[in-house]
Amino acid sequence: MRHITGWLGAALLGMTLTSCGADQIVTPDEYTRLTPGMTLVQAQQVVGDQGQPVQALARQAHRWQNQDGSFAQGTFLAGRAVEFDQEGLLAEVGSKSKLKKLRKSNRR
Fold it and tell me: In the record, which residues are listed under signal peptide (predicted)?
C-alpha cells in the first residue's frame, strides 16, 4: 500500500510541476513586448504561457520563469498591468529609457 501511495504521490507531484510550468520560457523579445495597460490574458498571449501567480499586496502579480532562473513579472491592478519587471533577460539594457525604446520599436 505504501508503495502505491508513494508512486501515486510522485505521479501527482510530477503532474503538478508540469502543469505549473517547470519548462516555462520567456524571451527578451517577449519581455520587451509586455507593456503597461495590458490585461493578464494579453500578457499571457505575448509570452505563450499562463505563468504563475505571485503573492503581492493589494495587487496581482504574475511571473514567467525560465529554468535558468531568469524571469519576467507583471504587476496588475484592476485587471490591467501597471508595470513589468525582469531579471536575467536583458543583461545589456542598463536603463529604463533604453527599455522604453525597445518596447516602442517592438510595437511598430
Answer: 1-21
